[in-house]
Input
Amino acid sequence: MPRVWEVPVHDSTRVRDARVAAGSAARQAGLAEHRIAAAELVATELATNLLKHAGGGRILLDLVDPPVPAYGDERIAMVQIMAVDHGPGMPDTAAALRDGYSTTASLGAGLGTCLRTADDFGLHSTPGRGTVVMARIAPRPNRDTTGPRPVPLPVRAGGVNIPLAGAEFSGDAWACVRTGDRVTLMLADGLGHGPLAARASSAAVETVRCAPHLPPADLLRRLNGALRDTRGAAVAVAQLDVTAGKLHFAGVGNVGARLRRGDSWQGLVSRPGIVGAHLPTHLPQQQQTWTDDCLLVLHSDGLPSRWSPGPAAHDPSPDPAVIAASIVRDASSPARPVRDDTAVVVLSPCPSDPSS
Ligand SMILES: [Mn+2]
Output
């Protein structure tokens, strides 16, 4: 079962903890030594930044699927390093990146170092609410250019997975897998929390990787069999046919799903039940039209169901994982701690400008 890491950073002793956790995550992802060092460097920079500019925050580490969905048999795990804070925010994120770039000599080089070191980089800041910085480190330093590659689909997915109370495992898990022109996004919330919940949700991930071609309702039935000897899970499946511009959705249990079209949000409804224990006999699939102004959010019940989308969720440019982390940050505060594992995953169109 993949681990997750949450490192609160409120004094300088925790910078080392963030670096050590990044090294562990990178080793678990099977990264080469120089990319392990890159992950450690990025985590150190982001943790230092939290103390310098935001009065602290937290570093979240996770092994994730690539943002542009890969085929189910391509097991690429990237190390995702995220810094989330409730600080004052950055008035000019472009300038923050430039400043970092201009002082590259030391460990204090900042965000510019992260931008240049990471395979993916994302940043979103809302003055008065805080900042999310995301960097992903891939197993390979460069994209594989050998052999024919399928044309990437114009959608991307990303998320965050935060364990309850800094635990080693999250009972939530998600996967985004491509098959032909279809992308299947699944989020599972294993019953309860801790390792046994994680076992149920990671069994769901494995099943989806092996059968992403199944329509959502059929996939839920397949999952019901696969999770039978686990605690069971709440599961939502969204499948996007990119060519047809259609999104199909089905869910069982308490996984939240909201679709944004332009400025308006619509909830997608799951049926009551537990995948692996009690599957409803009737599993209706909802169909929605998917256009370039759409964005889909799936989340476990660690996120309050009444969360309100902030500026990041209405901005087409941030990486989906950055949007997901912004949603979690805006729904929580030190005075309002979460009471369960929390996973949020976002599916969004790729920006039309290839340079962004
Ligand atoms: Mn839960």
